[in-house]
Amino acid sequence: MTDLPDTNLVMLTLVKPEGELEVFLERRPMPEPAPHEVLVKVLATPINPSDLGLLLGAADMSTARASTRDGLPVVTADIPAPGMRAMGGRIGDALPIGNEGCGLVVKAGSSPEAQALLGKTVALIGGEIYAEYRCLPAQMCMLLPDGTDPRDGASCFVNPLTSLAFTETMRMEGHSALVHTAAASNLGQMLVKICAKDGIPLVNIVRSEAQVALLKDIGATHIVNSSDDDFMDKLTAALTETGATCGFDAIGGGKLAGQILACMEVAAVKRMTTYSRYGSDTFKQVYIYGALDLGPTILNRSFGLTWSLSGFLLTPFLQKAGMEVNMRLRQRVVDELTTTFKSHYSHEISLTDALALDTIAGYNAKRTGEKYLIRPHG
Amino acid sequence: MTDLPDTNLVMLTLVKPEGELEVFLERRPMPEPAPHEVLVKVLATPINPSDLGLLLGAADMSTARASTRDGLPVVTADIPAPGMRAMGGRIGDALPIGNEGCGLVVKAGSSPEAQALLGKTVALIGGEIYAEYRCLPAQMCMLLPDGTDPRDGASCFVNPLTSLAFTETMRMEGHSALVHTAAASNLGQMLVKICAKDGIPLVNIVRSEAQVALLKDIGATHIVNSSDDDFMDKLTAALTETGATCGFDAIGGGKLAGQILACMEVAAVKRMTTYSRYGSDTFKQVYIYGALDLGPTILNRSFGLTWSLSGFLLTPFLQKAGMEVNMRLRQRVVDELTTTFKSHYSHEISLTDALALDTIAGYNAKRTGEKYLIRPHG
Known about the structure:
30% helix
């Protein structure tokens, strides 16, 4: 565990007051773990949509240009005025980035909990992980079995815990079945497997025949293609069959969230025996947890008055759910890391690659089925 | 209490399978109260937006034509295809109408609770009140002080209980201040008085200078005009000052609900000390309780992920709140009937007038400051 370099390559994202975004790599001194900390050599870290929100923010990436500084890549792009208003809180702060990853503990502080991790493979969460090394408290690491492939350990937190949070939320709020959009995503595939295992009826909404085929292959039962002419009818039929009254929407913009509420209402009205001018009294909930479409959400309110559309974010959910639920969910992720929670990556790139303009265009397109993994040490 | 006529004039609304709405008056036999029931001579009954939803439904009133049948008025209008789908559950049923009113108990069943109301002025709820007489269980009446003007007793339930429900909901869900739209309405004026009395900061959103003046006259503190160029800035300032994170929106369509959430978020971010890519962790709730604008709700999601937009309906709220809260709210309405809960009517009309095309056009415009009261006996 010696032979550590003197410096650590880290990625930073900076909003400049003149309306420019700058994303760059910087060599910083190698951090020294405090007694409760460990130094992790980052072997794999995914690019999640939630990372892109911080990395590129509201910049207009069609204006992106590449340069170098001290031999390291720099990407610069213009930020439109509304974007600058939205990002007012971060102007002038070069922020490190990367929510989660997997690595090897190469140095540990003196505390027993830190020492216990020395030489171990761990999953880590807590930001600043797009780097060669990350120094962080031992408790922010999750111990993985020896020999775990870093590819398998890289996405232990965000997608696995988010998909588990969907089923937990569903149960806590008294629903018995789920709807999910962008359902062919890595997260969507995990949700299919969780629901199959737990016996939860799940309606998967996708937007292409290729995605229908992908989900069929992994055993999904209810798959609806929003590109079909009879999408609303098919969605209503699936909601009627499953009784799903709780949805999670990764898309956010456009009409889809409202269409889900509308079809839930049609399914609920079918179960009613008397007419009510206010629609059904079945409570219908859709959570928006992503923003694959940054455009406005458009609700044609044809679904009565017993509904809710809300934002959903993992961290507040975990805080509210409490320690016991957190531990149970984390243990399940470790137990089912190479089955239920297996992630698939279409591209493996270096930290330097991650700042190449064509690579950025690739991962920023957020295409379902394409997922980028950064391997800082190749 | 004799001299009752043999028949009772009632208003009915019918959706015909061929895509027509028919609203008409019909003479029905005078009902005879069962032991637990009373017969109320209806002296005043308001036309609320919630009545219009049932009365005119999704009909295209620009196609309305007047005729008569058996000497009584009939109004017919075409219903567009989407409207027919929405109203599928009521096709072929001639539905009585009128949510609430005030009248005199002219006949009572043999039970003590019914007999106790004989000769008394009561407020009543329960539908079918656009009629000369209404026979209903004694427990659906609220006893009013002798000599109560029927104008004052006509709107004891919908607006007073809805406005009280807003403040109850605010407290139950942990907020400390409110936002209200279409705030110059009868309901809005009640809310201004309730909040003043209870010390609840209230941000009133209106859409004209005349409405600003009206609310100033009754002592409202925070009034924002959505027609002003700097509306968003002024709304943000009022939300910052009051800390309001709970809103009730009567309009429903358009951008307003989303603008309220956006300004709540700007106010919340001002209170934050560190930047978060997900926005503030302040929970922001807007309830849509009306549909003055039937167009789509458009949300430009610039308010993080800690928010909820929901439908709000009085009856489920009251059911959830329980008997004790219900009794407390009703008692307050009776106690403050001619002060806090005083309603103002711009037009008094007969049952027959209510089916005149120009009168329908008047009340269907739902203009703030205009409110129609039906006086079935002049």
